[in-house]
């Protein structure tokens, strides 16, 4: 008797539970036929295809990269449409360690004025001045927003081209969540290096730290896999030369981002297979915690 249709004669047994099923109930399976309940249970237990480093494999591994490109492009358009390097959004989003008292619409500032109160008094005394707040003054979001901020068209073009080339490769190897973690935390590592090693009244911006993080991550994963990393090393070398020979380029952000990418990729690639996801999360958390400590210590030193 079919256990679902008692009135019908049973012709076949489920290959998993061995219960009798009739032709109306049978479902083709990998081996023989199974009852509907076993088919549903098997579907629940089937694990999603995984990347070599534990991420969920997707049919469109470049999606997150394209979203990041879109965000960067949107912020650039916003700043360009509202005045470029004179835009209010530029001052809000770019990274500056400590605030400065600027002469409006001149690009100059009062180097001896280090507080908003003194800057206001300067303005009241007939010396036009405007206080631009930095991270140490409470504009902590600049540590993250500066990673998505650009003004110069060549700057954003280069960064987005590099992201378009490198991003999908790393996203395919790591999966979306792990790739996004590498990109964002590498960007923050670049901001931490800038915060510590750059004149605190200098404004720094751009996705270059995060892009260098992708380079570092791909290098580590390529070495772990035993692949030919020569083309990547050549690209990294060219970028290092440009970093130290070009004008107005933050080597601090590039260095910090690269080191962050190397550390994060090491966490992803060398995490033990047993409970790999947990080990990777702990490793990323440790790198992020170190970056936060760097932010706090630098803020205290500038206060």
Structural class: mainly alpha
Task: For the record, give the distance between the C-alpha atoms at the N and C termini, rounded to a whole number.
Answer: 82 Å
**Strand order, sheet with most strands:** 7-6-8
CATH architecture of the largest domain: Up-down Bundle
CATH superfamily placement of the largest domain: Rhomboid-like
Output the CATH topology of the largest domain: Rhomboid-like fold
**Number of helical stretches of at least 4 residues:** 11
Tell me, briefly, the overall form: elongated
Whole-number mean pLDDT: 87
Order of helices and strands: EEEEHHHEEEHEHHHEHHHH
Largest sheet: 3 strands, antiparallel
Radius of gyration: 27 Å
Q: Give start-end ranges of low-pLDDT stretches.
A: none
